[in-house]
Amino acid sequence: MPESENVYYPRELSWLSFNQRVLQEAKDTSNPIIERIRFLGIFSNNLDEFYRVRVADVKRQIYIHLNEGQTEQAEQTKQLMEKIQEKVKTLTQDFDATHLEVIKGLARYNIFLLGEEDLNDYHEQWSREYFRSKILCHVAPVLLTKKVKLLSRLNDSATYLYIKISRADKSDAYAVVEVPTQSLSRFVVIPPEKSRKKKYIMLLDDIIRLNLSSIFKGFIEFDSLEAYSFKMTRDSEYSLNDEIDESYMDKMSESMKQRLIAEPVRVVYDSRMPADILKDLKKRLKISSYDSLNPSGAYRNFKDFIGFPNIGRAYLENSSLPALTSQDFTAHDTVFDAISAKDILLYYPYHKFLHVTEFIRQAAFDPSVKAIKLNIYRVASHSRIMASLIDAVDNGKKVTVVIELRARFDEENNIEWAKRLTDAGVKVVFGMPALKIHSKLCVVTREEKGELINYAHFGTGNFNEKTAKIYTDFSLFTRNQDLANEALAVFSFIMQPYRRQKFQHLQVSPINSRTKIQLLIRQEIQNAKDGKKAKITLKINNLDDKQLIDDLYKASQAGVKINAIIRGMCSLVPGIKGLSENISIISVVDQFLEHPRVLVFESDGEQKMFISSADWMTRNMDFRIEVGCPIYDPDLKQKIMDILDIQFRDTLKARVIDKEQVNKYVKRGNRRKLRSQIETYKYLKASEKDKHA
User: How many CB atoms lie within 10 A of CB 245?
Assistant: First the structure.
């Protein structure tokens, strides 16, 4: 490999490049104005998670290297941290400028976001009354005495006001107020005074700030009050203790408490906060030299803006794309008749997720169904699928649900569902503590003519009604007994890991995914050397596994053409002469979150295709249970290839992943404007119309 160039792009910096693509959507004036402000919320939410996970990990590495006397490694990691902070600073400045631009844009549509300084007498009077009647009962200030440990009182999903209480005859005091967004909407729509043309929104933060004296008057003496917003992000990592007398669920519950008191990795505060107030805040939060202290605009926790309301005309947000009904299902009386007729492929959110919930619902009461097995990674808090599984138990079915309690940021929801299912009589399995279970499997066993037949679901996304409306994902329904039996073997592996399982068709991490993928790449290399058709097409969320990157580099050097769509992190560096010049990568960021994993190997014209739950990351190959399923039906293969082709031809929302990851848009040249998500919907709609006809 060329020594003159870095052949692995740092994954943390690559992730920030992905979030920059999200910010580009907020800047894109072709997007409706309400969608632009919501993209600012997505950017902010992403950055919070980045600090909780990625930056926290880098911070831990610095401490570990220093403690073990690894000076050189510690210095390299410090340099990475500096690059991260420098990039975040640049993105934050861009974010603030975009925020101001979008707020001005809202005003052009007669939507005004009011600050304290913008209020007229009517607005102020209405806001004060709203505070007294709706907000005050949710406000509980914390007076910061020496006994109060502020760090343990803060929730990193909340926004706070840091308040200085000035008193002429005494020393200054400080207090903290949480903005109660768990109980109230962050966005308060003020009724019109006269004209209904102009519409006004005020943030909960500003209404509280306007009414500070009402909170403290009569309880605390003060001459003046100042309040500035701040937000803290904690390290999301946690550890499980080894006490054998605790259940796995109890350990997970305890680990959630650890997260609540974990150290901060970032504090973002109102840039107008005076130096003396900031100094007191830093002291109380025990900010270390490796924590990121970021000044920014007046509003913290911008992630709430994902739900910014459209109080204007309908065209100010994206028009909805009504989810499509699958004619393959509706042409038959039952889902089992439909799947028996042929393999069925759905693509969300273009297709209705209702077909998945209906698959489970019918299985729950069908007298011929004997057993249901399903594994959960992320699930909606109000889930029809889970309700159907409980119904299945009541109907005498044998129901087994594998729940991954360590699905990051969904742990509490999964713990709650585990309790409810267990109480209902479902057999709940937690799998192996050493391996996260990330596969998306369901197997329904049905008795037909005295024989047990298995129906299987393989997916790239979760059994989650909520995310299925905003994430693009594939679902395969099949009666192929080879595939369905191997899906059952995955459940056996989870419940009895000491038993060896063999998988001829499926890619199953950590058993054979890496080796199967590497064999497929090596076959393409050999085909290229033999002058046969050789090509690799990938669509994944993240690529940072160095072994697989090296294999792709070798394939490129052998002349294999590699085209990839990678939404998020990409540590592979395309375009290095003699190494990766045959590799072309784009990233698509648009209305829906691109989430499927698809692997296609040309195989001298025989084309081997897989949909998978696994990204090409070390954790997915070696430390998680993942499943990749082959697509055997020629019609479904063609459909997936058509969808991939549409994305590769995107001229509006596709960015080139190059050596520097600067996110240049794909050059359109003289090609027509093509927005792949809209074009995909049109393609699938036409396909369903043809089937109906």
Answer: 5
Average pLDDT over residues 316-333: 96
Ramachandran category for residue 36: left, alpha or beta (phi over 0 → left; psi -120 to 50 → alpha): alpha
Estimate to the nearest angstrom the gap between the alpha carbon of 138 and the chain centroid.
30
Is 60 exceeded by the pLDDT of residue 4? no
Compute and round to an integer the Cα radius of gyration of the chain.
27
Question: For residue 165, what are the CA distances in angstroms to 146, 216, 271?
Answer: 16, 9, 19
Nearest Cα residue to 151 out of 176, 180, 179: 176
Residue 105 CA to residue 29 CA, distance in Å, equals 9
Let me know if 332 is a catalytic residue: no
Please list, in sequence order, all residues whose beta carbon lies within 8 angstroms of the beta carbon of residue 269, skipping any fewer than 6 positions away: 162, 228, 229, 230, 231, 278, 281, 293, 294, 295, 296, 300
pTM for the model = 0.90
Q: Give me 226's structure tokens.
A: 């100042």
Alpha-carbon distance of 18 to 565, in angstroms, equals 13
Pairing of strands 187-190, 199-203: antiparallel
* Residue among 622, 252, 531 nearest 405 (CA): 252
Q: Is 562 within 8 Å of 587 (Cβ atoms)?
A: no
The confidence score (pLDDT) of residue 239 equals: 43
pLDDT digits (tens, 9 = 90+) for 105-128: 999 999 999 988 889 999 999 999
pLDDT value for 326: 97
Cβ neighbours for 295, distance < 8 A, ≥ 6 positions apart: 268, 269, 270, 271, 273
Task: Quickly list DSSP for 435-459.
Answer: SEE---EEEEEEEETTEEEEEEEEE
pLDDT of 430-460, one tens digit each?
877 778 889 999 999 999 999 999 999 999 9
Sole residue written with tokens 């459909």: 639
Q: What is the DSSP letter of 12?
A: H
Neighbour count for residue 173 (Cβ, 10 Å): 17
Pick from 363, 435, 434, 366: nearest CA to 400: 363
Choose the catalytic residue: 123, 438, 457, 595. 438
d(CA 680, CA 661): 26
What does the mean pLDDT of the chain come to?
91
How do 597-601 and 608-612 pair as beta strands?
antiparallel
Alpha carbon of residue 35 to chain centroid: 18
pLDDT band at 21, cuts 50/70/90? very high
Confidence of residue 407 (pLDDT cuts 50, 70, 90): low
Question: Which amino acid appears at position 211 of this protein?
Answer: N
Q: Which runs of consecutive H residues, i.e. helices, occur in 108-149?
A: 121-130
Nearest to 183 by CA among 116, 143, 137: 137
DSSP alpha helix (H) spans, 409-545: 411-424, 481-495, 513-529
DSSP state of 375: E
Show the tokens assigned to 132: 């007294």
Asked if residues 375 and 402 have their Cβ atoms less than 8 Å apart, the reply is yes
C-alpha 669, offset from chain centre: 33
Spatial distance between the Cα atoms of 626 and 621, rounded to a whole number of angstroms: 8
Return the closest-CA partner of residue 562 out of 542, 586, 546, 541. Answer: 586
